[in-house]
Amino acid sequence: MILESFQIGEGQRPTVLLHGFLGTGRNLRSLATAWSEADKSRRFLLVDMTGHGASPRLPPGATLSTVAGDVLETARAAGLQGPLEMVGHSLGGRVSLAASLRSPAEVASVTLLDISPSPIPTSQSESGKVMELLLTAPTSAPDRKAMRAELTGRGLSGPLADWLVMNLESNPEGGVRWRFDRESLAEFHGRVNGENLWAALERPGAKVRCIRGGRAHYVTDADLARMEALGHPVATLPEAGHFVHVDAPDALLRWLLS
Question: Where is the AB hydrolase-1 domain (predicted)?
Answer without folding.
Answer: 16-120
